[in-house]
Amino acid sequence: MDESWQRARETVVLYGRRLQAEGLVHWTSGNLSLRVAGEADLIAMTPTDAPYDTMQPEDVCIVRSDGSIVDGRRAPTSEFPLHTLVYQRRAEVGAIVHAHSRAAMTMAALGWTLPPILTGFVEAAGGAVTTVRYSRPGTPEMADFTADALSDRGACFLRHHGLLAIGATMERAFKAAAVTEASADVYLRARQFGDVPELPAAEVAWIADLWRRQWAAGAPSDGA
After folding, report:
1. Distances (CA, A) of 143 to 32, 70, 149, 201
2. Cα torsion for 85, 37, 33, 145, to the nearest 10°?
3. Hey, what domains does the chain have and what are their CATH numbers?
4. Which of 37, 54, 90, 178 is 20 to 30 Å from the Cα of 116, by its Cα?
């Protein structure tokens, strides 16, 4: 097996277990993927219906961005069209994390926007995170509907579904997902006391520039 394939698979397994440890997924929900270093057209992706705590590198699928399966002893996640279409359209995206976490699912069910209320949230996601319109899971429309919401943002809520996060690396995509979830939880709690103050627009713009640096040419790979 190609060494870069193995490293990518190991990274997917590692972050899958982190997803579960941080409560960002439950049982076999959610999924994640990573470009293979040196082979931008190849993607390591979680398999369908596989618990994260028992997942092994050999379970992780290797697919092409056109959707064809290259290697793996299990079928890829049923939402692989979402992943492959994002990679096709966004050459700078190196990893995708799809979470089913409680606060994110609450925001997605309500169709709410998470405003820029915390500095760490803006640095992780680039600014306010919106909810995109509903699309049936496993369909290409999900990628279509997220395109605008992710054009200058690291995450969005999927209506009646969950959270989608992207990054130049798996570390950045995971950070966007985890910090957005935590910030959504804070926002939902804070709303019980009234309006939640937002950061000044000038501060949001300044902090968001830190988030955009990940897309600079030569950004480090983490996995692959």
Report:
1. 14, 22, 10, 29
2. -30
3. 3-215 (3.40.225.10)
4. 90
Amino acid identity at 92: E
Average pLDDT for residues 186-209, to the nearest whole number? 98
Q: How confident is the model at residue 217 (pLDDT cuts 50, 70, 90)?
A: low
* Length in residues, the chain: 224
- The H or E element spanning position 202 is helix 201-212
Decide if pLDDT at 40 tops 80: yes
Q: Where are the alpha helices (DSSP H) in 49-200?
A: 80-89, 102-110, 119-125, 141-146, 170-190
d(CA 19, CA 132): 22
Q: Quick one: which of 178, 165, 180, 14 has its CA closest to 95?
A: 165
